[in-house]
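Appendix B, Record 12. Input sequence as logged:
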Amino acid sequence: MENLMNASKSNKPHAVTYKVVFLLCIVLLATFIAVIIALSDLIIGKSIEYSLPILAISGVVVLIVLLTLVASVFSILRINDEKQAMGLPEGSIRAVIALSLIVLFSIFSVFLFANLFSGPPRVTVDRLSEAARDSYIASHPNAAAVAIPDELPDGTTRWLYNVSFSPPASAASEDFAKQLLVLLGTLMTAITSFYLGSTTATSAAKAAQSTDQVPSISSIDPTVHSVTKGALHLRIMGTDLNIITHVKLSRAGVDDLFAKNVRSNPTEIECDIAVDGQTTPTSDTEAWDVVVDDGGSKSATKRKALTIKA
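Logged structural output:
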């Protein structure tokens, strides 16, 4: 009975963990939907000069919030990397920066092209007389006039004119837009190239480092396990263990026991080994060797390290 209670207690944190992760995912989805709705309310009805900065700044804020939630989920599941920014896998932040710059470059490119193509807004002068209309059109060749009737107090009708024209585009504005587009394009290219280059260099360095790594085992936990407790969750401590992909228990005269769900980092390996009272050999005196390897030539062994009892 006590063993069953201990087993249930050991499984309870896992159930709670998955519930917390599920709730965080729901919060993440709800936050994303709420932000989209809020952004649509802010942007609709506003001119592009206001909606574009709101969209860009809000996008950065949403990105930070989402990354924080993702980092929290990774931390709960214990797949985070404490040595990297926000605990995310290596290269995640660089990838986010590169992709963000690409998105911003696309947004600003469309915005600048649309403004340069459409030109300045048309200017309208209302209720001009015919003579004033002719004078205005003479000084503004691209002007267009629309006639509107005007009722006088004596009952007669005279014609007035609304004249609209497009002012010439500002050469300074066009030059600034071109320079800004070139600057964003250069920045995007530089950051993206840096991300790809650093990723390649990091991969090469890891490949060179892995050839020199020799894994070793210093201790394991637990050192004694009873088959009445069910599956064995084994922790193996040591050095240079991040290359390990396979774990097994070995003992003379019996079949090896192979681990599943092997998770490794430089100093620790976690895995699960199925044991039961019917098929797993048990002994109070004969211990099992713990053997780890990378699927190739690198391996380490802790002899007589684990005892499996009935």
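The chain has a mean pLDDT of 77.
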